[in-house]
Amino acid sequence: MRLIHTADLHIDSKMQTNFDPAKAKIRKDELLQSFENMVSYASSNGVSVIMLSGDLFDKTHVKKTARERVMSAIDDHPDIDFLYIKGNHDNADFIEDSGEIEIPSNFKLFSADEWTSYTYDDVVITGRELTEENARNLSGNLVLDRTKINIVMLHGQVSETFNGVQNPIVIPDFRNKNIDYLALGHIHKYQLEKLDDRGVWCYPGCLEGRGFDECGEKGFVLLDAEGGKIRTEFIPSSIRIFHEEELIVNPEMTMSDIISNAEELLSDIPEKDIVKLVLKGEINTDFDIDLDRILRTFSERFFFFKVYDQTVIHVDYDSFINDRSLKGEFVRLVRDEELSEDEKGKIIDLGIRAILGEEIEE
């Protein structure tokens, strides 16, 4: 038997943190397209069950068009069961809010009141919605047949203890429970770890990154359950990937050098992707990084591009030892202060500009 484990799709997200309205609209559509692509993959590869481990949608009010596309994809594949457990973002009861949209019979749910199981030959999939009320005793009445292949679905944060964690899934409580695969949602990065001598726990991550805190390839997990065992494979599926790249700058570099090094650093990134370039290292006090020039060079190359200057001012204190000018006296004064080198550099840069009568940008 083949199954897919996915979570944290966050369909109908606004996508406006980085993008203008036109590109935000494209990315909103691509979240839905990614879901549809995964369903098509399932249909073409003999998948019987798709497990949705929470946060299918992103917000309280889900637009009708988004609900319709999700339900249409499910309804168009009656040979696949879609098992859905609510996550912390699934506040809207979109099923009741669907109005005239008919809920497909192959869309199956779990409750918060008790553990619910769905059986497929020797594979049993059991799940429960995590709430503040049931979190402390979540595993207490979970009873699984050790002769079956047992998959358990939950949405929350794995932890070794209950205290201090929001939406906790206390991993020690689920050890030695005859679990073969703990299908989790909530963390947007793929993680596969050992649960006990029998099973593993897994976050599939999200299908598409929505910001630079979700960089890298995203996708879903394909499971093959056979002969009493489960084999897993991460399947990359991102339409676009977020990249954050660091470029180290030194005081000897010119703007042409920075552009050239950036060209080399970003050369292997596909044009369809989303890129943030972060400049780090040191620059001289009399050197200004031209961020607009970097933006002009790369903005048209990628779907979206942004650049941040996190360089610090390099101060050659030895060159000011014998400088008896106001500038030298100022540098020596700052040098002796109990500040970080970054803070000293910024103060010296501003001070020298003021001494020289340059206009200082606020």
What does this structure look like?
- The protein is built from six helices and 18 strands.
- The chain has 362 residues and is α/β, with parallel strands linked by helices.
- A six-stranded mixed sheet has the order 4-3-2-1-13-14, with helices on one face. A six-stranded mixed sheet has the order 5-6-7-10-12-11, with no helix packed on it. Strands 15, 16, 17 and 18 form a four-stranded parallel sheet that branches.
- Helix content is 22%, strand content 27%.
- The model has no long low-confidence stretch (mean pLDDT 89).
- The radius of gyration is 27 Å and the shape is elongated.
- Strand 15, helix 3 and strand 16 form a beta-alpha-beta unit.
Mean pLDDT: 89
Helix content: 10-25%
Poorly predicted runs of 5 or more residues = none
Give the number of DSSP strands. 18
| Termini gap | 63 Å
**Largest sheet features:** 6 strands, mixed
The percentage of residues in β strands lies in 25-35%
Count of alpha/pi helices: 6
Rg to the nearest angstrom?
Answer: 27 Å
Output the strand order for the largest sheet: 4-3-2-1-13-14
H/E element string? EHEHEEEEEEEEEEEEEHEHEEHH
Shape: elongated
* Secondary-structure content class: alpha/beta
Write the layout of secondary structure elements.
Elements: E1 2-6, H1 21-44, E2 47-52, H2 64-75, E3 81-84, E4 107-109, E5 116-120, E6 123-127, E7 149-155, E8 157-159, E9 168-170, E10 181-185, E11 191-194, E12 200-203, E13 219-226, E14 229-236, E15 242-249, H3 255-265, E16 274-284, H4 291-298, E17 304-309, E18 312-314, H5 326-335, H6 341-355
Parallel strand pairs: 1-2, 2-3, 3-4, 6-7, 7-10, 8-9, 10-12, 15-16, 16-17, 16-18
Antiparallel strand pairs: 1-13, 5-6, 11-12, 13-14
Helix pairs in contact: 1-2, 5-6
